[in-house]
Structures are given as C-alpha cells and as structure tokens.
Write a structure and sequence with these properties.
The protein has about 300 residues and is an alpha/beta fold. The protein is about 35% helix and about 20% strand. The protein has a 5-stranded mixed β-sheet with strand order 4-3-5-12-6, sandwiched between helices. Strands 10-7-11 form a 3-stranded antiparallel β-sheet. A two-stranded antiparallel ribbon has the order 1-2.
Length: about 300
Amino acid sequence: MRHLDSDALAALVAVADFGSFTAAAEHLGKTQAAVSMSVARLEERLGKRLFERGHRKVTATITGECLVSYARRIQSIEAEALAAVADRVTDSRVRLGMPDDFVCSFGEALLHRFSPQNRALYIDLACDFSRKLRMMMDSGELDVAIVTQNADDPPDAVFRYERQVWCTGPNGYPEREDVLRLAMFSDDCSARPRVLATLDRANRPWRLAHTSSHVSGIQLAVASGNMLTVLPESAVPAGWRWLGEADGLPPLPALPLVLLVSRSERLAARRVAAFLRREFARPYEPASGEENWIPPAGPRATVAAEG
C-alpha cells in the first residue's frame, strides 16, 4: 500500500471522535454506508481490525488508535499545506458560537491551549442562546457551535454533560425565603424551563425577580440583591455560595451539550471541534429519569404570584 486516502482517514478520525458510525456520517455529511465502507476498505488493506463494534459504542483497537494518531498528524500537515498556499484570511478563520456562560471554560482553553499551537488560525466567537446558534449553523454563519441538546438530537450527539449549580452572592441567603427570588436567563434560554420544572417537582415556590440575556447581567443582579440563580459550575464567580439539598434546594439535572460542526469539512473547523472533544468530553450519570433530556413543553405547574 503506497498511500492512504484522505477521505478514508477523515472517516477513521470521525468514527474515533464520535464513537459511532452514524454520528461520524452526520458530521461528514455522508451516508453511514459510505463511512462504514471507507473504514472497511482500510481494514481490508491493512489486514487488521481498526474498531471493535459494540452494541452502543464503537471503540478503536490498538491498531486503530495508532492509525488515528497518524491520521490526525496527516490532517494537520494537510491543513498547513493548504494554509501555506491559500492567501485568504477566511481560510484561517473559524466562526465558533456558544452561550456566553461557557466562555470562561471553553474560551479560556481555546486561547491558552489551542491558539498557541495553531497560530495560523483565529477564532471568531459569537455568543448567543442555543436556539439562535442553531439557526446560525443552519444558515452557514457559523462553522462550529456548542449548544444545549434538544429533542431532535440523537442521544449519542451529546459530547459533554455540564454540571449546574444553585448559587448566590457571598452575603445573600435567598434560600431562606418562603418564595425564592430568581435571577435567570431570558425566555430564549432553553435550559431555564428544566430548572423551573425541577423547583415545581420539589414544591418550592418561586418567582422571577430578574432576567437577562447575558451572564454578566445575571451575576450583577445576584450580587446586588438577595437572589438565587443557576449557572454552570465554571461560570460561578469566586467567593459565591454554592447551595444544594442541605439548603432545601432540589438536585439539578446535568445539562447535556452538543457540538455542532458544519458540513463544509473545512480542516480548520474540524481541528477546533476535535480539540473541544478531546479537552471537554465529559460522560456524566444524570439523576434518575433524566438520561435523555426533552425540554418540557407544557406550562409551569406551581408558580408563586408575581410580586
């Protein structure tokens, strides 16, 4: 064998990253049969199995892991070669979208660990709610996006379960009030209904005291008043109080996150996506009955009267 087909290597890496032929095919914009055939041809030419096909997940063999490592290096060299001969700024730009409460964790890693190793690329970051980010992906305005899982996503599309935290300022005690005063993201937030439904099931009366479309607005409201909020653990400011069942608050289900990648197969976008998966993939065992999140469609059950 004198050469390795780049499309076959792309299929190999995608299956390794996603752990699924179906998800890899969706990522590459190909049929599952085409991806399976590409991997099968590689296995036939090598005379060795590259993946163990399990019932729920596909895992690389020792040979597969070795070849995936080389495939990533080949893709990286290919990207460098294309960047060297392409005199266009757009080839080096990756348009990345995420909710702004994840910027501290994901954004910091990209700036401090990804960018120094990929100086030919730069990140054009857009922050918005998941619903808007999905629309931007559909319209081709973004290359990569981190969004909250919705009912249309396949279960294996989740790459990370993000822990959510009840929290408040260092000097506030909103959990002691009969009616919780909440500072939450505005109506466009797809995670908010789930949090409120959790309070309803626990029979904890609540009312919205403040809403904002940005995490900075939430943090300012909580710091200025006796309010409670829910944030990803990485977005909780230093010195704030973390609350839980001991404070009379119900446990929060994990927030499932999906990584969307455009079908253009731009190498720059694939490199950003691969980095995010390697750095942040987090399996998580959600609370009982919460394995697959479908956002509640009905109205809130027990809501205290607005004061």
